[in-house]
Task: inverse folding
């Protein structure tokens, strides 16, 4: 936005006073100490609570605002908006970063249908997070044939399953394999990188180490 | 004590920033800048699998993610003693090059240009260019619908602000075109980086992606398209604003900071990093007639945390001591 400081704050206060808006929140809220995030000299948490009062609903974007994300595992102990903004309908749009089509799609859904999209237990829209990545993965065939990529330097393995490289696809829900990113250009698995489970509440702390399998791949061979 | 002006929040950045200046007799006497957010990423990495670092550190910033990620991956390469295959170096260069393109466009158009123009001048455009007229009417419509918070309210332009309606409207047109151009530059990065922001393919020892011939051709086509926009719009605009109304400020010594500059060097053309597209160097008290570039020596860089929330320690080279929160 063009304005900053007082001028930007003025827009914020006018909007909050008016009410009836869809509140979109980015960034986790520091639970350990308000000082970890201040905006205009005020704690971020205080601003989120103030702005949520007259909001129609809240959209928490990215893993951070949804569930705490990476900052959840730092001394700031980041938490999602849903943990503080009680009493308002909330939609979580995790991933790291948020998928722009998820955000625009959710806003358009609310504006055109006049209601919230159907949500799962983690308050994620089922239309975007309803399916296990593993079930739609372009490398699923190799998983079924136990072709697990062991060496990125071997061209013979280039399309193989990334489970042994730490892929969290079997425990992550999102439409990334179908929607892909950047106007359908590519996605994590498409560039040979394991999924990190950034759609899930346990991201990042519980998904670490990223590049190691949580189970030996032999368990799938039984 | 002079007059104090506080700008908080500074909006056109990633993260949170407060700027304070003290003014006496019409001049800035003191100035302070404070980052008002501490996510604590450095501490988070302690005792975790070190290979996670390049993935996590990328997430420090959604604008310049690639440079953080690249530095982190290079630190891991050093720590593991990994030899990055030459192909891996090239892919790393190309995806970061894509970020360089969009970052420059973003910096100039989305983050800076609004400070140089008096946006209201748009409405005074009386020229005949059909595209500009359509854009003028579109902006008029969003302003009337009070749906223009990306452009207004804005600070009143001072004597250095550009107010020529045609120039301002063209700058806004390029502002909008740059949004599309930098989205396309992100597609270039995503071709091998998986997605942008936050490439997924950068790991210790190289990259996870394999380029195909078709992808390389597509990348080149997209690069040519970017080059056209850079040459036809971006460079001309940068030169126009730099030598136009802002020229007087530059002559008075503004915009150059302390006139000391440092470049660490990047984009290697050989595995030993001897030949770089962007060479390294240090310049003190820059004089454009005789810049006197000295050799860059990383050993002379120290990390100082005196004014930060980090645990206090003497200024030392980052190799010598970690940063604690």
Result:
């Amino acid at each position: 936005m063009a304005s900053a400081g007082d001028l930007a704050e003025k827009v914020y206060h006018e909007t909050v006073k008016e009410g009836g808006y869809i509140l979109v929140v980015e960034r986790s809220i520091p639970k350990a100490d308000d000082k970890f995030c201040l905006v205009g000299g005020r704690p971020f948490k205080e601003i989120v609570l103030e702005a949520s009062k007259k909001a129609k609903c809240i959209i928490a974007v990215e893993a951070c605002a949804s569930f705490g994300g990476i900052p959840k595992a730092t001394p700031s102990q980041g938490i999602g908006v849903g943990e503080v903004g009680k009493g308002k309908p909330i939609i979580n749009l995790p991933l790291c970063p948020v998928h722009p089509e998820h955000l625009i799609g959710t806003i358009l859904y609310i504006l055109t249908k006049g209601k919230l999209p159907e949500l799962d237990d983690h308050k994620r829209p089922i239309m975007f997070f309803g399916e296990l990545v593993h079930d739609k993965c372009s490398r699923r065939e190799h998983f079924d044939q136990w072709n697990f990529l062991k060496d990125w330097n071997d061209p013979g393995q280039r399309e193989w399953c990334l489970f042994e490289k730490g892929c969290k696809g079997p425990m992550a829900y999102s439409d990334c394999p179908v929607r892909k990113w950047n106007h359908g250009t590519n996605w994590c698995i498409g560039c040979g990188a394991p999924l990190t489970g950034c759609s899930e509440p346990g991201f990042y702390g519980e998904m670490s180490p990223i590049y190691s399998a949580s189970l030996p791949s032999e368990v799938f061979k039984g | 004590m002079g007059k104090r002006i506080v700008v908080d929040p500074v909006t056109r950045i990633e993260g949170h920033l407060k700027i304070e200046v003290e003014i006496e007799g019409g001049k800035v006497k003191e100035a302070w800048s404070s980052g008002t957010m501490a996510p604590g990423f450095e501490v988070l990495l302690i005792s975790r699998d070190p290979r996670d670092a390049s993935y996590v550190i990328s997430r420090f910033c959604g604008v310049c993610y690639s440079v953080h990620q690249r530095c982190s991956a290079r630190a891991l390469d050093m720590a593991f003693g990994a030899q990055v295959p030459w192909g891996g170096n090239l892919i790393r260069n190309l995806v970061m090059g894509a970020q360089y393109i969009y970052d420059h466009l973003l910096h100039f158009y989305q983050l800076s240009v609004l400070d140089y123009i008096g946006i209201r001048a748009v409405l005074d455009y009386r020229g005949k260019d059909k595209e500009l007229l359509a854009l003028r009417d579109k902006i008029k419509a969003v302003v009337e619908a009070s749906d223009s918070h990306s452009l207004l309210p804005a600070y009143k332009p001072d004597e250095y602000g550009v107010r020529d309606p045609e120039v301002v409207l063209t700058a806004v047109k390029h502002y909008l075109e740059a949004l599309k151009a930098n989205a396309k530059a992100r597609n270039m990065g995503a071709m091998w980086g998986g997605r942008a922001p936050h490439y997924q393919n950068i790991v210790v020892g190289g990259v996870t992606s394999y380029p195909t011939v078709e992808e390389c051709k597509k990348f080149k086509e997209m690069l040519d398209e970017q080059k056209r926009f850079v040459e036809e719009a971006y460079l001309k605009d940068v030169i126009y604003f730099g030598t136009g109304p802002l020229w007087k400020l530059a002559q008075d010594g503004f915009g150059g900071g302390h006139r000391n500059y440092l470049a660490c060097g990047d984009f290697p053309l050989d595995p030993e990093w001897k030949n770089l597209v962007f060479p390294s160097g240090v310049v003190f008290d820059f004089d454009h007639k005789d810049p006197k570039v000295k050799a860059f020596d990383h050993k002379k860089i120290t990390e100082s945390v005196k004014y930060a929330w980090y645990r206090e320690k003497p200024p030392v080279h980052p190799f010598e001591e970690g940063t604690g929160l």
Notes: Chain A is about 25% helix and 10% strand. The first strand of chain A starts at residue 21 and ends at 26. The domain at 133-221 of chain A is CATH 4.10.480.10 (Cytochrome-c3 Hydrogenase; Chain A, domain 2).
